[in-house]
Structure formats: C-alpha cells, structure tokens
C-alpha cells in the first residue's frame, strides 16, 4: 500500500462490474511557451523525461538549435530536477546556463530557442477492476492486497523507479517480478541482493569490471545493470548498500550509464529499477546512513506490502496455494487453519511456506491438528495495551535460536527470513542492549 502523498495512492470506488480501485500517480505537465513548438503541451507520468529533437525522446522538439538528446527532467519525491545531457547550446534557467537544477513549480527553462514550463499535474486516474485472488506469484484477496495489485498494474507501464517496502518475507521480489512481467520489457529480470554481497565486490557485481581491473579479475564481467539491459533490475535489501556506492547508484539512475571498474568510459543501459527494503530509510537518512537524494530519486512511486498478520483472511488461501504448488499430500483441519490465522508470523509469507512444507514432510497423508503445528511461540506479552512489534519479533528470534541450538542458518529458515536479515537484527538488538535498553 502507498499512503504517502504524491507517491502513488489508491481509493476504492463502485464500478459497473463490481468494485474497482482508482490509482493516482504523480505526473508532470509541460507547456511550451516560446519557440517553434509554442502552444504544445505534454502530460507525462513522472519518471525520467527526455527532451530533444530525436524521435525517441519523450518530448520531441522541432527547434534546430536543440540537440538530439538535449536535457531531461527527473521526477523525485520532492519534485523535478532538470539535467542538461551534454547539449551543444546548453540549458538555461532565468538566463543562467545550468548543468543540473531543482525546478520550482511553474519555473520555466530554455533549450535552444524553446522555453518550457513544467508543473505538477493533477494525478492521472486508472481504474482497475477488483477481485483477483492473485497477481503473478502473489496470493491474497484481502483489501490490502487488492491495493497492491492495483498499484502494480498501474506502475508497470511507467518506466519510473519503484521502491517496494515491507517486512522480511512479505514477497517484495514477487512484486518486482509482477511489475516486470506486466511491463512488456524484452530483457530479463535480474535480482541483486545488496545485503548478501561482500562490500568489496558490490561495485564490480553491480557495474561490472574489465579484465585485470583488480587482483583476481582474470576475466571481464558485465555486472547486474548490463545483464538487465532492456529489462528490470531488482535491488533487494537496498538499505544495506554502502554509502560510497549509494553515490554511484544515484549517478547511474540519473545518467542511465554505468562505468565498469577499471574503465575510463561509460556504457549506456536501458534498465527499469525496482528497489526493495525492510528498513525505515527515512530514519536511516536522519542517522546519516542513507543519502537523502538517493531516497528522493527512488521514492517517486512506493508500494508498501502488508505484513501477513495484517491480512489473516489470506492465510487459508496461501496454505492451499502452497499445498498445491509443492504437491504436498497433507491436509489441515479447520482448527489448524484458525490457529495459523491467529499466529503473528514474524517471518511473514516465507515463514508460512516453510511451516506448510514441514507439515507436508512430517505428516504425509494426515489431517494436521493445532497440536501438530509446532510453531515457535512468542513470549507472553507485557501487561499493557500495546505490544511493540519489535518485542514480538525479538522473542520469536530468541525462541527460534533456542530450538535451533544456536544455529543461525537453521533459525532463519524457521522464521522465514534471510540469514543476512537475522544477523543484522541480532546486531541491532546487541547495540540496544549495550545502550541500556532491554
């Protein structure tokens, strides 16, 4: 779900075929106020909007003083940035030649003999019929998932970067896959985990390297961006990207060019980026651990995946889905399904899948009862109205580690989270304990 202003929102309306979601997406409205194309207007859903005389630009001008690829306007969560793309005659704002500048609402800029004004447009509306129980590999017919489906369908056709937020195990990579499959892009979907790759190798793995670029580089490597050319790059665990590489990533997003390690030249790439995080990036910005300009660049469209505990009505559907796709010869009693629906699921859908798979192995041909579920039980909550999610999560991790006899990989599998995520959470808990917290 996306409930932040201007980052992609939905609302439910009555529709002739039942219910539908109206999806609102941020757009930019361009008006040519002077020059050979005076009077023309363009409304473009926010992304990277290219301006020039070449036919494949988003805004094509007939002005012969304008370069083939003259400038671009990049939409961010904060507004619009104007970037000159090495044009011959330059890009001007208020008579001053600029390389890059933030465009205030209604501010004009000049390319060649053409002056253009840009302003935020009332968002465009796309009505999406409601009722699907799945989209791609995502499963669920709850209201939160219907909002997610509507946003995915709407943004799939827009080449802008998307930020998918949600706890570990909610299915963020499945969102990226659904966006890619609906986008019509011809290239592949390439997944890259920023959290599990050695910091020393991330730059090479993302942007590639030349042969001999460093010790051990016996062969040239393309890197994730080039492998995803004309397709989609899924950047998982984005919050774990080292700060020095955040600058490199921002440059690639803005220029659509990568510079392999050991190379003096840049290589153009046509890549749609879908990033994902289970961290609060705004908080990491405040802590100085994440660059604000990168967050703004990534946050044009946000999709928030709900935790499984917030959509318990989907659990029977998910259990049935896993039983069929994994071909498991087991059934669950109604009481067992109800018990699963009451469980807080700190590892979300991934944890549920692991539990169902375990039940299928241990109870072949049987009807599973609540007593046979053997779920890690959170500790009794403190005597107060609200229990913090962090405490439930920490208790579940402690119990999983106890059952796994300290084996972190086994505990992560029980919880349905990645080993990297488990290690990071343990590190966070130790830091808070050292600081005097529980």
Describe this structure in words.
The protein has three domains: 23-124, Tumour Suppressor Smad4; 161-304, Rossmann fold, CATH 3.40.50; 314-434, Orthogonal Bundle (Helicase, Ruva Protein, domain 3). It is 31% helix and 26% strand. The chain has 438 residues and is an alpha/beta fold. The strands form six sheets. Strands 1, 2, 3, 8, 9, 11 and 12 form a seven-stranded antiparallel sheet that branches. It has a five-stranded mixed sheet with strand order 5-4-6-7-10. A five-stranded parallel sheet has the order 16-17-20-15-21. Helix 1 packs across helix 2 and helix 11 packs across helix 12 (408-415).
Tags for this model:
five-stranded mixed β-sheet, seven-stranded antiparallel β-sheet, disordered N terminus, Tumour Suppressor Smad4, 3 domains, Rossmann fold, 438 residues, Helicase, Ruva Protein, domain 3
Cα distance spanning the termini: 32 Å
Helicity range? 25-40%
CATH topology of the largest domain: Rossmann fold
Number of helices: 13
Apparent shape? elongated
Largest sheet: 7 strands, antiparallel
CATH class of the largest domain: Alpha Beta
- Global mean pLDDT: 83
Could you tell me the strand content as a percent range? 25-35%
| Radius of gyration over all CA atoms, rounded | 25 Å
Helix/strand class: alpha/beta
Please tally the β strands and state the result: 23
Number of domains: 3
Q: Could you state the CATH homologous superfamily of the largest domain?
A: P-loop containing nucleotide triphosphate hydrolases
CATH architectural category of the largest domain: 3-Layer(aba) Sandwich
Low-confidence stretches: 1-7, 381-387
